[in-house]
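Troubleshooting log. The previous structure file for this entry was overwritten by mistake, so regenerating from the original sequence record. Sequence copied from the archived sheet and checked twice against the printout by T.R.
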Amino acid sequence: MKFNISDPVSGGQKTIAIDDENQYRALFDKKMGDQFPGETLGQQFAGYVFKITGGNDKEGFSMRQGILKNGRVRILMKKGHKCYRPRREGERKRKSVRGCIVGKDISVLALSIVQHGEKPIPAITDKTRARSLGPKRASKIRKLYSLESKDDVRKYIVRKDKKNNKKKAPKIQRLVTQERIRRKKAVRKIRLQRIDATKKAVGTYKKMLEELRKKKVDKKAAAKSAKKDVAAKPAVPKQTGTDQLSLMTH
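Regenerated output below.
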């Protein structure tokens, strides 16, 4: 079985092959995430503590965390699941993955150093390697280098070497600069101006509605008073034809 040992502190990584099954038999039935002493793999790892982070079986199927089985299973996968990349939107597919329990069929086991021992491991912990990739988020860069809020994080990003002695820097996420602050202030000012204009327009509209309502009430009151005046006047009797003849004779 091969063991891919990595050190997150120094950045070193190395694959070690152990042919004697009696040496790593104690790892059988352990799960991903379990820790074990380094003496299990040999006295050269005395004092070290390793953590199982993954692995592959002899056919190349990778171990999947959460599948408590010492073997291979077929599970239905969709977008967002590990070991699967959908080709269409909304696609689901049943694929084979290896369980997270270590067994005889494992060919490569990935280990991470949790605790260092007294003697350094050659090509792993004997020297510190430069980071090939660094954090991109501004807050994580400040946390890595213990920077303050006034420090410029753009000077501390990890750059990758390219051709022609050029270096490529990643785009910093959530970076707050003076230009960004100025833009936010300008946007906020425009938004406040729009709010004030809307408030003024609403006030003008309400005032117009009040004037229309008042005119309507006054018109209604005037019509009502005119109706009352007409009703208060004495009724004039109508003259019939006989009345008109009598008047003419007189």
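The CA atoms of residues 230 and 236 lie 12 Å apart. Archived copy saved in two places this time.
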